[in-house]
Amino acid sequence: MANTDVLAAGPADRDLIARLAFGSMAAQTLRAAVRLRVVELIGGTVRPAAEVAADAGAGAQPMTRLLRALAGLGLLKEHAPRSFSVTPAGALLAPGHPDSLRSFVRMFTEPAIVRAWEHLDDSVRTGEITFDAVFGTDFFSHLAQDPELSAEFNAAMSQAVAETAAALPHAFDFGRFATVTDVGGGDGTLLAGVLRAHPGVSGVVFDTPEGLAEAPRTVERHGLEGRCSLVAGDFFRSVPAGSELYLIKSVLHDWSDEQVVTILRHCREALKPGGHVLIVEPVLPEVVDTHTEADVSDGGVTYLSDLNMMVNIGGRERTREEFEDLCRHAGLSVTSVTPLADAAPYSLIEAVAA
């Protein structure tokens, strides 16, 4: 008899399976709420579903059903039959919220992300990226061919980095460096947070032309025109030389081990004497343990991100040992790995020339 035949399962175990099986439906409920502007239409008051439906150009009964589903997910509250308000979590779907995750939700429920997941089992069998087979090109080339989707992706990444941009400047001593280059820095949100907290530091945001599309607005919005320059390029060819610190956040997990070594080697070659490389990525434990604080707070999202890298892009999340090995092959030596407080599941991996 197989071991699974003798494991006792209770109601909580059945509920867990049911919640997970309904997970894609919950995601599409979020997507519908964003596309129908539900949170904006309700605003900061209690509104009848019929009014929300009329403003959204939808039927009253279907809208009521959607709003009740959102209430069941904790994003709305039903005060009286068919009258709803927005919860603090639901407010994060509003575009004007300072911590908005609207674009993040739109991007990660977008067919361009979701469709390859339908073939996860194929990726597991073959190790191949299923996105390329589904769409006929790789993920980043697909983005480059769709300006609207590329803009949504950039906005999603900006929203995803906001929490780290608030925590990172106070968790690492940037003040000891005169110059910082943010490799793959996108719209500059992360580097702007660093420069605002450390007035003596100047910086460079380095990314593809598409990645830098919104960066001028970020620099201008934070008044950093004299301290932050933007450089377009390809980190597989080189990175701008001469900085004392090279910052790399949520970039390495997009790529294969060989490609990561190439990126890190270019940072090593560009470093000033005595310079450092600071990698900001999740660091997987050697063993999954849902009783540890990190895995409980993460809720398994980092492991889902690892699978997302596999099916859509070809990268992966990594353990400390794996980061140390990649750095070693790039001519770098890891000196410390520190969890980033207030921005789980990220850690700070500091490295110097070996």
UniProtKB/TrEMBL annotation:
Gene Ontology biological process terms in this record: methylation
Q: What Pfam families is this protein classified in?
A: Dimerisation, Methyltransf_2
Q: Which UniProt keywords apply?
A: Methyltransferase, S-adenosyl-L-methionine, Transferase
| Residues covered by the O-methyltransferase C-terminal domain | 117-332
Q: Which one of the record's GO molecular function terms can you name? A: protein dimerization activity
Could you name the active-site residues? H253
Cite the O-methyltransferase dimerisation domain residue spans from the record: 19-94
**Is S-adenosyl-L-methionine one of the keywords UniProt gives this record?**
yes
Keyword S-adenosyl-L-methionine belongs to the record:
yes
Record-given protein name: Methyltransferase
